[in-house]
Write a structure and sequence with these properties.
Length: about 250
């Protein structure tokens, strides 16, 4: 499989959102939200764009508190976290004022139930005016709507949508080292609309092609591959059930 970052329409929308935030004048809110169903490449895109834009990437975790978040942010700013929470906050403000950096907060759903943490992030934005992007699941937008002071500052909201046929074609063409016919690509689009699923299938396709010396995968061959994958999934489910019922 080729090591290429495929710019799907979702990725292009994320890039546009970042450009919009960076071009906003001082004094205008620079907070945004990217949300959508799992498996569409949100985290992968967030990591890639963080590297491209010298941004800070923080992945939220279950049970993360405001203090924990501040410690993570301080460490990402190449500082040693201090003991008092107030000092941690000051470290973040001083460092971001001295050298502004975009902050991308992934898995924001974990933080959405903690008002203090959400309000702390809002305070960081208001005091530094650095762009802050939340990345979350399908319900992230509704969860953040509970915090009007923060939600009103979201100047851009982008939803990651299921891959179009063109997206799937681009992913396969750029990543897969084996050629697929158009009907085969259409079949993948109809049955696999998650990035992880498509990548796993590409790995299987390349293995089958290499083992059987196949240069091009057509719809018939792909159907057999999909049947084999389905059969393995069923066997795995049965195996797990047998273990659980022992």
């Amino acid at each position: 499989m080729r090591k290429v970052f495929v710019k799907t329409q979702n990725v292009k929308s994320f890039i546009t959102l970042i450009n919009n935030l960076q071009n906003k004048p001082d004094g205008v809110s620079k907070m945004a939200l990217v949300y959508g169903e799992p498996g569409l490449g949100k985290s992968r895109t967030a990591l890639w764009l963080a590297a491209q834009n010298d941004a800070i990437y923080i992945r939220s975790a279950n049970l993360m508190t405001g203090r924990w978040f501040l410690e993570e942010l301080v460490e990402e700013l190449d500082e040693i976290p201090r003991y008092w929470t107030s000092d941690l906050f000051k470290q973040c403000i001083n460092k971001l004022t001295e050298r502004p950096q975009m902050i991308i907060i992934d898995e924001v759903d974990y933080l959405a139930s903690d008002q203090k943490t959400i309000e702390t992030i809002r305070d960081i934005h208001d005091k530094t005016n650095v762009p802050i992007i939340f990345v979350g699941m399908t319900l992230a937008q509704k969860k953040l709507q509970r915090y009007r002071h923060l939600y009103d500052r979201l100047s851009d909201i982008t939803q990651f949508k299921p891959f179009s046929k063109n997206d799937v074609s681009e992913i396969i063409t750029q990543l897969c080292e084996v050629e697929l016919t158009e009907p085969a690509i259409n079949l993948i689009h109809n049955q696999s609309n998650r990035f992880r699923q498509i990548v796993r299938l590409i790995t299987k396709i390349e293995a089958v092609a290499a083992t059987n010396n196949i240069e091009k995968i057509d719809e018939q061959i792909l159907q057999e591959i999909l049947k084999d994958e389905k059969r393995k999934n069923i066997e795995n489910i049965k195996r797990v059930r047998n273990i659980l019922t022992r």
